[in-house]
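Continuing from yesterday's entry. The apo prediction looked reasonable, so today I'm repeating it with zinc ion included to see how the binding region is handled. Same sequence as before; SMILES copied from the compound registry.
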Amino acid sequence: MDDDLDGFYAPIPDAVDRVVEVAGMMDVFAAQRLWRVEAMRQEALEDAHRHGRALTDVIERGVRLELAAALRITERAAGEMIARAAAMVQRYPAVLDSLGRARMTERHAEILVDLVDEAESELRGALVPQAIQLAEQHPVGSFRRMLRRLIDSVRSVTLAERHEAALGRRRMAVEPDEDTMAWLHVYLPGVEAQAIFGRTTAMAKVIVASEGETRTLDQVRVDVLCDLLIEGDTASLPADARGIRASVVVTVPALALLTAGEKERHDAGLAPATVEGVGPVPLARARELCGGDGGWMRVLTHPDSGAVLSVGRELYRPPAALARLVKWRGDRCMAPGCGMPASRCEIDHTLAWEDGGTTGLDNLAPICRGHHRVKHHGGWRVRQVPDSGGEIEWTSPSGREYTVKPERRYPMFHPSSAADAPF
Ligand SMILES: [Zn+2]
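Holo prediction written out below.
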């Protein structure tokens, strides 16, 4: 072997590399398929026009039938594929290019096109490059949230107006399924959805933990929902599972409570109010949630002078205010790509308490139960990036690193920069 080539050999691919490689090929093929589907549509249109047939919708319907038959998929699926192919080739060529280079997955490309298409057409040109950048960097779940937020920030129709319009479409539907089962669909405001899910989960957890209970959490959650909706009361539940109320975390920027309207606030570029697990909510709705008693837990983003940031090694369990702050900062499980709302996560000492880890903002993060187990028993190494405001770096058993950024930054005040702080 030639000594000059030392250090120039490619590393031997491991099992993860082999999966990543074939996933990349699938992205390349997905782009190819979209190209060819659009070429098929174009060809059919040109052919028809040459023969004097000009009924575009009839011809497109024919293309759909042909594609469905050839691929043995439903016409509905074929129609979606054709629409997406036309959109990518004609209007989003840069997205198709990125997919064709395996720099994003087909799922990223689909979400990108669907969401950017919701924005007014004159805004799309400016959105696309930023959206591509996000798609090439983030896992699907975070990408969707970040893109939605980006689009919300540039749209002229305010969130309040869109929410108002969507509210009018609230409805309930039953969809029959196999084996005498059915799905109950409810289209409702996200805040209430989160509250219903949170309350039934909290009640179900009490029941699942009781002596002799054999049902799963999923099963009990449904049984509780049925008891509440059909019987209207919880008398059939064990005593300690009754009377649990919904708890939803509402975050409102302190300044937003003072400024007059949604429009002014939007124009001033102020961060919207958000509800954990739901995302941005109209300010009027947030004010209403904060004003009532109920189970709404209000967190203002104003740095509270009394906030406990760390109790060092004094306490293993973080005080309630600190636990809330940790969950508020992360907003969801801090494992790569996980979307589990922080309220349903456990608070994890990034550096374990047994290993000298402290109970403080710089060593705590919300992690869901499943990822908690992976962290402790799965051979991963996890650390908080120093001075990053809560970024968590995960190193897999194969040695790959994934950094998860928290949803929010807790303002840190250094004496020199205090004068520049926004509050
Ligand atoms: Zn998780």
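Comparison notes:
- Confidence is low (pLDDT under 50) at residues 254-260, 293-306, 412-423.
- Residues 333, 335, 338, 340, 368, 370-371 surround zinc ion (CB under 6 Å).
Will overlay with the apo model tomorrow.
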